[in-house]
Amino acid sequence: MEIVAKSIASPATARVLLTGLKLCWRVLAPEVFLRQLAALAVLIIVRHSLWRTRRWLRALSAKIALPNSRKVYKEELKQARRKCADYKTFQSLGEKLDKAEGKDKWKREDNSPLFDSQHLRERTKRYREMMARGDVDACMYALRGELLRKHFGICNPALFQVCNTGTKVVIEEYVATVCEAMAWVGFSYNSPSTRTDLQTKKDAIHERLAFFNETKHGFGRSALLLSGGASVGMYHFGVVKALHLNGLLPRVMSGTSAGSIVCGMLGVRTDAELMEMWNDTFSWSQNFSLDFFGDLDVSRFLKTGQELYSSEHLGRILRDNMGDLTFLEAFDRTGRIINITVSGLPGNTRYPMLLNYLTSPHVLVWSAAQCSAAVPGIFESRELLAKDRLGEIVPYVSGGLKWQDGSMQSDLPMARLAELFNVNYFIVSQVNPQAMLLTGGGVGSQKGPIFRVAQFLRREIKQYLQSMLELFRGASGRHPWLRPVGNTLIALVVQEYEGDVTIYNGRGLLEFPKLLKNPTDEVLRTYTKASEWETWWHIPEIQNACAIEFVMDEIVKELLADLRASEEEMSGLVRTPSLCSRMLPQTGLKRLPSFHQEALRKEFMGPTQKHMLLPKPTASEMPRRGSGSRLSSNRSMADLLLTSG
Known about the structure:
By secondary structure, the protein is an alpha/beta fold. The protein is built from 28 helices and ten strands.
């Protein structure tokens, strides 16, 4: 600073400048930032070293353990869990391992500072008493006024970091009781003792639909967010598979960059088609075009500065895999609400955009995925394409407005999803190579002083960078969603990479050599199996938080089925994976006669096999490899709104 000041001709000016620079240095304190950055680097290295050393010592201890010892038995259970082919076996072995390690005693103990066991016991008992005496109105009144997703600490992540599977028994009993009470309330009108005339039955169903719709709104929705990560994003398939097969796949899905490709490929397909994909004999290369990157053109990149890969080629591949479906048509076809994030270009549009059937109903899903995957230097930024009133493909916004990789600004658009769809629980599948480094997740235990200090330093560093960016760009005080693009590197560092549950896959920075390689059948099977196994660890936590929501969804579907179709029409259908069938195997949800309009199906039925009541699409209508097909919807949202009365 003194050298700069002395270079000024006027001594007075030099003194003023020197004083100003010293003041700025003391106020902004960059030396504190640099010390924190250095300390964080040291802690990351120490933590990783301790984690690897601990793994090595455990492996060594298992090898030298005495025969028939308890350690050998526990190690055998752990090895068997690593080789499980399904979640049911994985969960069963986890319960045996908890018993062998004495953790089942912790599950049965109510006292804990992590949650309020007394109120949970009280409510569980009260709901049981109401069901025992048949007081439907009292039970509805209590559930409507008391039910929240995260009350009394039941979603505290620390409760799911103690055991190998599950959590406190009192929490599991409470969730199961609420689900049972919901089913009992929903179908009490159809019990033999209360069956009445057709009109009274219809009124009772309408009353329950109003109750469940209001209760669902207060309880909130869950969403699955798929991060970016180039070719490593193929890990997302295993996460979706594990959730879908266990009846825990949220209707709201969001994808960014590579996640947008997976989100688009899955979001245009029905449950029946997804079940085909999860078959062990499914051939990815025969059903999808996997040549996402095409030919590498380094000479063009060096001579003209253009991107390494062709965006036109990527667009053709995505169109083959997704068809010409718009967001609204995909919603009408599957009932899933897919969201794709795109980032604006400086000087073009400075704000990110979340595309879905509400904000951009006529935008083509494959075009949105193409823009969201346009990483600067890899793929050229592109215009969004949409369908006009005649079904012709046209630019979404006139004037050549272009968009780029959604990860540049908002890898996980949680704030916008909460605004649009009442989402208050976020399940994140995270594969970004830099995410583990920036969050500290995915490696080792998230407990202990080293992890806590490292997390403190991460928060301080991110806040410092964000504050400096806002200071120099004049964006202070704005909503995070409306902040300008700014510096891409800073945007990648300061944005959020975790949700309520974050499922990490991949090896972090070690995945960089694979980022720009096309996946193969073998790679996809390996990635899917690995990420499915990783997701199994989180299923107890997800089920604990989302079971009540999904059970209410299924009850609403069944109530609408009772209004809409006869027993003969509804018989013989193949069920999709259902959480109710797992949690309430004895009670179940019975299909009942119906007389309501068919057009109510789409909005409320969601992604279930009940969609198969519609005429089955022909092979030419399916988004298969090389088809470039145009799937269209048979009904619009206007039809649903006009017939809902």
